Amino acid sequence: xxxxxxxxxxxxxxxxxxxxxxxxxxxxxxxxxxxxxxxxxxxxxxxxxxxxxxxxxxxxxxxxxxxxxxxxxxxxxxxxxxxxxxxxxxxxxxxxxxxxxxxxxxxxxxxxxxxxxxxxxxxxxxxxxxxxxxxxxxxxxxxxxxxxxxxxxxxxxxxxxxxxxxxxxxxxxxxxxxxxxxxxxxxxxxxxxxxxxxxxxxxxxxxxxxxxxxxxxxxxxxxxxxxxxxxxxxxxxxxxxxxxxxxxxxxxxxxxxxxxxxxxxxxxxxxxxxxxxxxxxxxxxxxxxxxxxxxxxxxxxxxxxxxxxxxxxxxxxxxxxxxxxxxxx
Length: 329
Fold this sequence. Notes:
The protein has helices spanning 2-20, 27-34, 37-47, 49-66, 69-90, 110-135, 139-157, 166-205, 226-238, 241-254, 256-271, 279-289, 293-299, 301-316, 318-328, and strands at residues 93-95, 105-107. It is mainly alpha-helical. The chain is globular, with a radius of gyration of 22 Å.
């Protein structure tokens, strides 16, 4: 009994404390909050999704008691339930080739896990647009109010940074308003992915994982993967109002599967029998350097190229060709 409940309690307490660290407001505390799903991922991937769900509810109760009901609900929706849902999908398996006598398992595809990781913020964005539209002037107007308030507060606190012509400040505000929900959704997906990969990596290191770790080169997106992105891009280009705003912000979220697939293509190229192993450190270095302010405008092109590589690979099956060529040599 102790061995069953202690990991659940420890994961719940650790996750809740990491999430509540935002109260401190320091950079380190914010980093801890970003990692709050990590204990829940680790527990779920090692003990199953029901243990993860139990820990999520306990952690939500701790946050509720320590902060307030809204914080507890926000924790469960943003940090807890996505980890449980993704883990439940990740732990699905069936006998290889549907042969009931086979002892080998075929695990839930990595490509479909990526699609679920993308669907969660996309559904959240759609819900936000619908709810904001029903309750008031719409999501764009609400975001603009928040962004203008933030810029006004930052401007009064540090006039030096925002000592810009009013036209440039207005352009910066308009750009932020245009893409903030989409970028926030993409950032949430990336952080959730990092937490899941960290948890799986640590468990695999100690041989405590329930499923083998999927490889980046094995990401195969479903046939229909480009269609949501195409619909969002058309809505962004052709529609106005709430539908156009939804399209603009859905595009960066729906690019995530192709970004990861493009990155998987780099892994496949580097891992081929005659592969260029320098591609991996070079690509990841450029991706990290793209966050440096003075290099961002140029190196962000790397992310676009990876997305394009993922799109090309989706139709041309480049990863499959590389794998087949490697097997023949």
